[in-house]
Structure formats: C-alpha cells, structure tokens
Amino acid sequence: MDAGNRLQLGTSVSDLVEVWHAHRTSIILCALVLLIGLRTLLHKAEEREPLAVLPKIYNQEKSETNEKTAHEAQPVAVAEKKSAGPRRIKGGVTRKPSQEKKATAVDYTDRPTKVLVFFSSITTKTEKIAHEYIKTLETFVDQRAGETQGKFLKPELLDLTEIDFEDYFVSPPKSTENAAYVYLFILPSYNIDSINDTFLQHLQETHHDFRIDTAPLSPLIGYSVFGFGDKEGWPNEDEGFCFQAKELDKWMSKLTGRKRAYPVGMGDMKSDHTERFTEWTTGVQDVIFQAVQTGFLGEGVPGSGDAVESDEEDAEADDGEVVFDDEESGDGKSSDDSRPLDDVEDLGKMIRPNKDGNGTIRKAPLAVDFTTYPSAGKKKAQAPIIKEMVAKNSPTYTALTKQGYSIVGSHSGVKICRWTKSALRGRGSCYKYSLYGINSHQCMETTPSLSCSNKCVFCWRHGTNPVGTTWRWVVDPPDMIFDGVKENHYKKIKMMRGVPGVRAERYAEALRIRHCALSLVGEPIFYPYINEFLALLHNERISSFLVCNAQHPDQLAALKAVTQLYVSIDASNKDSLRKIDRPLHRDFWERFLRCLDILREKRFRHRTVYRLTLVKGFNVEDEAEGYAQLIERGLPCFVEVKGVTYCGTSTSSNAGLSMSNVPFYWEVCEFVKALDKRLQEKGLDYGIAAEHAHSCCVLLASKRFNVNGKWHTHIDYQRFFELLEERGADGDWTPEDYMGPPTPEWALWGNGGFDPRDERVDRKGRKMEAIVTREAPE
Ligand SMILES: Cc1cc2nc3c(=O)[nH]c(=O)nc-3n(C[C@H](O)[C@H](O)[C@H](O)COP(=O)(O)O)c2cc1C
Ligand code: SF4
C-alpha cells in the first residue's frame, strides 16, 4: 500500500468514528428493534411438536377449544393418523371425563353403519367360526338392504394378529363413507401367553393413558363380545371359563363409555357353543338392525337411551341381595318413590317406616276407601259415576310409576322383580326356583287389580294403593291387560341389555315369559275377568302362581285352573289377623275361614299353598298351635314360611314396626320346627321339605309330595299345560298329575337352597360365602 492510499484509509476510518460518535444512540436503538423483529418472526414461523410434559400449562387454551369440538360437537372421532411418535394428546391431563359425564345420545341416523368383527384364534376353531359368521352377516346385510336404504355397509372381518391396534382402539377408524361402527369380538380364552394378552394389555393401557380420553371409543354405536372356552378344563367362570372374553367386555365397556350393545356371550367349544353362538348372533343382529334403522341402540344402553347402569361396573344398588336399609342409614330424604327393591313377591312383605325431610316419622297417607259413599240422607241420591281405579292424573298413578310400576290400562300393573334382574346376572334366583323350579329371569310379576281389601301393617305400598271391598271401577278387557303387561315386561327386560354381568344366554331366555306371579300388589281375584286372564296366560304356556288374601270366597270358589294357588295366612287367630291385616270387611274372619274351606275342597284339583309371613311381635310367638289348626282345616299341599323383610322406609311405622320385627333365619327355622312338631302331634302327614335360606324361607309339604322317601316339590310345567289342553280349565286332574322330578339335593331342607349355577354376591358384587344358621346361637 503506498502513502497516498494509506492517508485515504486513515481519513475514512476517522470519518466513521466521527459518525459513530455523533449517532451511536440512534444506531444502537435501530439495531435493537431490528433484532427483536427478526426474533419474533422466526419464533412464529417455527413448527412445534406437541408437548408431552406439562401440557396443561402450555396447551390449556388449545385443549379447551379443541377438545370440545372432538368430543361434543363431532361425536364420531376421526381416526388418528398413524405416527411413530407419541400418541396425540386428546384429553389433556384431566382424568376420567367419561365417568363423570355419561355418554350422551349420539344420532347416527344420517350415517351408514359398518360392523367390524374382530377375532383371535390359535388352534383355528374360532377362525373357522368367524369366517362362517362373516358370510352370514353379509347375507343379513344384503337381505336388509331394501329396508336400510343401503345404510348398512358390508361388514369386515379382522384378525387381531394382523391389525395395528392403534388403528382401531385409540379411536374408531376414519372411513370415506363417514361410517359409524359396531365392534363385535369373537375370542377364545387362553391361560397361556397369546395375542389376547397383548390386546387386552393395549386396551388397559389406552384406558389408563393420561394423554387419551378414558373413553376414546365412545363414538362407536356399540360393541359386544362372544367368548369360546372349554368347560372340560375350566368348568366354570370362577375357574377361568371364558375369562378373557369377560375381561375384554370390561375394557370395552370402559373405553366406549358403557356401550355394551348386547350381553357377553359364552360357549363351550366341546358342548353348547353352536347354540350359544347362534343365540348371541341373533340377538346382536337384532340390535344392530334397530340401530341402523333408528339411529340408536334402544333403551338401556348408555348413549342411546335410558341408562340402567350404575357408575361402577359391579356396584349396582339392585344386586340380588335383600337390602336392609334402616332408618339411621337414610339421608333424611324420603325415598319411598325411588327405591328399586320394592317387591312384595320376592321380599315377602315389607315394612317401610316413612320419614319426612327432617327425619321425623310421618303418618301414613290414608288409603282411599272407595267404599265410602255419601249417605243418602245427607245428599240427594245420585247415580254413582264409574271411576278409573288408577287414573293417569291421580297421585296413586304418580306414586306407583315412581316406584317402578308400569300401569296398564286403569287397574293393572307390572314390575320387573329384583330376582329377575339378579338371575339375568347369574346372581341367584328367588326361592321359587329352589322350591318349584321357576326360573326368575323368565318370570313376569303382575296384577290385574291394584286394589285390595286389606290394609296390612307390613304392606310397603300403604297409602299408594286404592282399597275397597267390591269392584266399583271401570273394567279393562283381559286381552288388553295381557298385551299391555307383556309389552311392558319385555321393555323392562330389554333395558337390562347393557347392564354389566347380564348373561347373553339368560337374556335370550328372558325374552320368552314362562311364568307369571300374580302377586305384585292388590288382589288379583278381585278382577272380574280373572279366569279369562288366566286362560290367556295358559294359552301361551305361561304358568300362573296366584296369591290371594283369603277375603273373597266367592271369587276363590269360582276360580278355574291355576298352576299354583296361594292364600296369605298372616295370623293364626281373629284378633291377630285384625291387627295385622286391618281388613275392610267386617266379617273378615268368616271370609278367611270360608276361603280355607274352599282351599280344602280344591286340594285335589289345585296345588294349594298357605303363605305365612312371620312378623316378630305380631304373629309368631305362641301361634304355632293356631297355625297348625288352620293347616288342619285347609289341608294345603304346601306351607311356605317366610320371615318378613324390612326395606327401610315404611309407612307402617305408625303401626309400631321396626327392624326388631324381622326374624332371623334361625328364628324362622325354630318356628317351622315347632309347627312341624304340632302337625305330627295332630297326626297330619307333613314334613319340612326344602328351603331358601337367602330369602328366609322354609317349605313344609304334605307327604302326598313325598314319593319313596323323596320330596317332589318341583312342578312339571309341560305336563300341566298338556293336562289343561287335554281336559280344559275345569277338567279333572290332581296336583300329583303334574308333580315334577325329585327336588334337587341342594334345595332340600338342610342344604341352603342357593342355586348352584349362580354366585352369591354382596351389594358391591363381591362373592359371599353362604353361611346358614338354623339354630339359636348359644
Ligand atoms: C393351552 C390352552 C389354554 C386354554 N385356556 C383356557 C382358559 O383359560 N379358559 C377357557 O375357557 N378355555 C381355555 N382353553 C380352551 C380354548 O379356549 C378353546 O379350546 C378354544 O376353542 C380354542 O379356540 P381356537 O381354536 O380358536 O384357538 C385353552 C386351550 C388351550 C389349548
Ligand atoms: S316368582 Fe317371579 S316375581 Fe316372584 S320373586 Fe320369583 S322371580 Fe320375582
């Protein structure tokens, strides 16, 4: 560099320094603004990965808006795009949204339905069945094409070993047709490591994954599971029969927000599997077809109607156990109208002390006595207006429907008995299964007359039923009542479809009523067309168990054939009967005795039964002799002795009843033994035949039903109908003609009487040991 150049360079540097000194503040400020601008621009353009840790802080705003859209506004979730990275956060870290809010009704009417059938198979038996089934299902879809306007898409069969679980079990897949899905599963059980374990593990993890909604499969229309197993190796469910199908059912229930479309079915690959599987597929297809047509699964399935389930899978309030809710356990609210356990039939008769909101005992509302008419002297005589017994706008109607009754016409009622629900869930049948072979899940409890002529102190329905001595109401025709009670019964059974633990096999059987207990409330023989009503039952081969209160001798005498005829014997003498039954008839004792005489005459035509309900302090003490005399008078075929059952809030508290009036089972047994002794002493040929300790019930039977030293208390129902068809309702035959096979060993006196097919459970569904105490504790 020469001297001139160097001089020039020195000048420009000094110029720059000069400029810097003159404007440095503004230069620094400009640079700062430029840098901040650039930083902001780059930050905005940056594409960020979703945050897996602390999403609540970072994604709060986003999840609040997005989640609402995914789960409420758009019911059917769009399948996740498969990615190798972590699963997308759908529900934030807030847990259990689906348990807090039940799945809401989703309308699928505008969307086509697609059934996906998943299966696994190791020794290929299930695989073969699944392949055959998918063909059947395809044919079914084709046949229904006309009725469903093509909204029923071709079903698809999927092998669990060949699919990516994430495609189907994190959310339902997306389809071009915008299909709504039904998932069916056919799964054999394996107690060795198999694909089933991986699959079940996946479902469990999905449910527990805090980043995923606990019920990500709630957009499904529904699901159902069928299991195959082997009873030779795994004889019952306790020992592992079909255990993985049951587990799958449980996880799917959680993941779908309880959208069990049909109860879990189970088949033994070595015996009944074809029958059980056909039963299940028929039921499932009916439900799916209904969903395609109506857009919902029907009542009883959450998300589509009236959910019957409780919050916990296994903790239903109504669980097949007698619940003794005493006064102290109440919350102060009057629960008269909402309790599900109010069945006279299954619980014997109930006591309900009634409290108001402050916990003070209320007087029972007075039952309306329709027999009280204004006296002719006071008012000008008027032609009586014929009223409806239970008019739709009456308080009686409201009270009864709140208690779970369906009122048919104006004077009949039907209610699903808690034993029916219990048997559907494999938790035991009522005592009539042990004593007479009645399947509780096939039994309808009904009455053609809600009115009665007694006001028994232990009758829980006190104050809600009309009473009267004669029929003064509009009369509904028997066929209308018959159709109405059947329809309502089936409706209630169908509502049980989604309830956890309901057995597919029992559910299918329950859709055919085989028995009718005419003992719900009121007095069935009060209904003027009771014989016609019975004929309708028998025509459909439904057996009839009719209970009457021994106050209507004329109607009793005119009664035609019934399968089993009861009279309630609530006391052994006149005074006691007046106190306990509070009859409306002045000549109640004479009526009572006449009924016993009629029963005596009928004993070779009908299976006659005395039903004794023991209430400690009222009709037990020192009354064995009195009861023995009544038995001597009527000579019934059977004597059922039951302890009264206490159900909590009775209006009869004003009669001074409490928990202390409920006898222990050993007290019932002691009474029965004393009664049996008295009968022997009188030379009457009776013996203690059978028991159902669970219901505090013991059966004394006439030795007519003891053949070659064996009790035959069960009924041959088939034979009963044959006799009826051959000889007519007035025909000549005896109860022995339709006596069933020997009473099973487990039901005999001394063996407890609990159905060995079922499991005894407590209110939470936990298994219980059956400990029976028949003797007074030391
Ligand atoms: C190793 C083995 C373990 C099994 N474990 C059970 C079990 O725990 N419970 C059950 O009910 N059946 C069990 N089974 C019976 C199978 O579930 C039954 O045979 C089924 O039909 C097999 O179906 P697949 O041929 O489709 O694999 C088992 C069978 C095998 C061979
Ligand atoms: S006979 Fe029928 S209605 Fe009566 S308790 Fe049994 S199942 Fe219920």
From TrEMBL:
Chain positions covered by the region annotation Disordered: 299-358
Cofactor section: [4Fe-4S] cluster
Metabolic or biological pathway: tRNA modification; wybutosine-tRNA(Phe) biosynthesis
Chain ranges of the Radical SAM core domain: 436-685
Domain Flavodoxin-like: 115-285
Compositionally biased tracts (Acidic residues): 308-329
GO molecular function: 4 iron, 4 sulfur cluster binding; FMN binding; metal ion binding; S-adenosyl-L-methionine binding; tRNA-4-demethylwyosine synthase activity
Biological processes annotated in GO: wybutosine biosynthetic process
Keywords from the UniProt entry: 4Fe-4S, Iron, Iron-sulfur, Lyase, Metal-binding, Nucleotide-binding, S-adenosyl-L-methionine, tRNA processing
Organism domain of life: Eukaryota
Compositionally biased spans, kind Basic and acidic residues: 330-355
Enzyme Commission (EC) number: 4.1.3.44
Similarity comment text for this entry: Belongs to the TYW1 family.
Protein name: S-adenosyl-L-methionine-dependent tRNA 4-demethylwyosine synthase
Organism, scientific name: Hypocrea atroviridis (strain ATCC 20476 / IMI 206040)
